[in-house]
Batch of 4 targets.
Target 1
Amino acid sequence: MSGDDNYDIDTGDAGASETVSIEAGQIRKGGYIMVKGKPCKVRDVSVSKTGKHGHAKCKFSAIDIFTGNTCEELCPSSHNIDVPVVSKKDWMIQGIQDETYVLLMDDDGEMREDLQLPNQSYTTDEDNKVSSLIKEYCDLLNNGANIDIYCTVISAVGKEKITDIRKKDA
């Protein structure tokens, strides 16, 4: 054997995890948890006293961040529970394409046109309100109004959704 032997080394991209495990007793109101595979925002947490088996239990009342559905989860406070990795990013809205897709640009000039108006995928009152405001503000923009339109996109477990809309006079 010589020292010049070539070896192929396969490498894989681990990527970022979509969830992390956290002790249930550490999760507070306003935090996030996974309930039946869905990312949810915690609306309320109640902790029961330790029972005869020695575990206090946490009862989580939460809302699915993408559909608005109410969920509940019960877990011993000392056990781990999955928490989604949730990120939020602000984008400037450039317009609407095909009455469905929102044209977005970030601070670095990166463009996106793959995100649908909120009520195209799910129908909650909040989604309908955001969608209506996007259409209204884009109409103002198209009619020559000197405004900038911004939105917040929330991302978790491979899904994304526009959750907030605001306009500023340019």
Note: The helical segments are 125-142.
Target 2
Amino acid sequence: MSPYLLEQGHEVVVMELPCADLTATFSDYAQVVCDALIGHRDDVILVGHSMGGQTIPLVAARRPVQHLVYLCALVPRVGYGLGEQVVREPTMLSEGWDSALSPDGEGRTVWTGKERTKELLYADCDDSTVFNAIAGLRPQANYPLRFPFPLEEFPPVPTTSVVCRDDQMVGNDWSRAVAKDRLGAALVEMPGSHSPFLSRPAELAEVLLSVARSR
């Protein structure tokens, strides 16, 4: 995705969150993002993919952000931790979402079963992309799922929710409802599965450029 944005003169900052850390919370994840943005201008468009949706509002509560984009994201619910949220909002995740996940013995989950992982995360990616993407998957500690979302309300930042119609992880109907009722966000729908930055980078980049132009 980055080349398409760079051609338009936009700087792209990509960061990895400490998902394998057994002691890190989503607040810690947010601090990693804030640290990575030190020295950058305040007109940041912050994109949170999948579980990254739990982190980006915490960043916006700590530093200036121009716009938040929830991409196929697990949007938090005020007062609840993600673990409880999964139970209370059964349509948030698609049926069978955890069928390729297994515990690793350290309080983390890991992706197992390449074919099912492909179906859930990379269904419309070519085989080479899938191979490299799966090789880069990391364990996810369950620790941060225990803690309630620490904000009393979402930050007053312009927000867009991007829903991929073929997403096999996050429920489309849930995402549409949350975009309207919880976030008050502009809703953008596009074709593709859970990882459009790999399968449809040009289309996703155009969505993000549209957000940038709308400022």
Note: The first strand starts at residue 45 and ends at 49.
Target 3
Amino acid sequence: MSLLRPLVLVLTLMLAATATAAEPPKPPQVQLQSVQANFFQEKHLKILAQPITSRGIFAFQAPRSLRWEYLYPVRTLLLVHEGSMKKLIEQDGKLVNDPGIAMDSMHLVLEEITNWLAGRFTDNPAFTASFPDEETIVLTPKDAGLAAIISRIDLHLQGRDGLIDSVIINEGPDTFTRLTFSDAVLNQPLAEKLFVTP
């Protein structure tokens, strides 16, 4: 009987280790209060030999302020602050209001990016979030109508602070948009006017 006790103890420890290893990764704990960075966007379509590319800069201030500015090929600015969203586009050298914000995949992503930068990966009930590892979040739409626009979003984080390294928006067979971020400056004070004025 005494010989069985060590065996039972070893089996118990092995089962406990297996149960711990099988636990799914948890959402990353994000500590960002603000971030400013450059971004590079590639739109891949099956019918195009080369992707359509755009470049720009963005700034985020917790909890939900965002300045997203395309500098190339057409200057376009999106301002999100205190629940309001404003889009401006350059015409004749000046930024003017663009009231027609198209409901496309990038528009949906820009609405969500303030949540992601603040670590709120599960806030939108339209998506199911899964966490394959500590640096990857996969968002899958629950609704068939939304899935017709976006089939899946992959967020890749850079390290443990929750800074997003890249986003891949899968829009259908052989169609996806990739955003890659660089030169990030973290947790520096940002003026409110950055999110309300061009």
Note: The longest helix spans residues 4-22.
Target 4
Amino acid sequence: MAEREGKGRRGYHHGNLREALVTAVLGLIADKGPNGFTFSEAARAAGVSPAAPYRHFKDRDALLDEVARTGFELFADRLEAAFDSGGPSPMRAFEAVTAAYLDFARTKRSYFVAMFAARSETGPDVPRAGDRAFAVLYRVCEGLVRHMPAQERPPIHMMSYHIWAMCHGISELFGREDTRSRAPIAAEELLEAGAAIYLRGLGILPDD
């Protein structure tokens, strides 16, 4: 079951207004989606006046960007730790990183939703944080093709997007309660099967 982020009204204490607003927005996203609340509702959920959020954010979109930036930083941390846990084995690193992707999407659902809903109009911080996460997928793909003859290696950037699309698509599909309840296979099993087909097609895994 996904972790309920932002649950409860923590209120505002001196010095943590930004954090209180982020926590409030996580709860609102879980209840109403990323576009289902106003700036004043975020302030109310954080226990502050409607004017208080303007101390840090110019509008609701800027606040959502901050939630997205924080989410991407946490996401990148998770993927980097998973990559390191795979040790020197490229396949173990691949398995650990893709599993971490699905786990983050499931257990940090409000962050995950915000990460791909933010408009990123307030500056480069959200794209920069996203690039850090993507770089882990790139390193995974570099490791997988390292021992292939150079002329047989697929373009690593393209391969990274393929892996990202696979992980993200499954995460989005299984993020819906109705899909999870009807699916005859777990998200992790679906990813494992799809990845095996893809990697065999590239010649990274041997044919059975």
Note: Residues 7-12 have pLDDT under 50 and may be disordered.
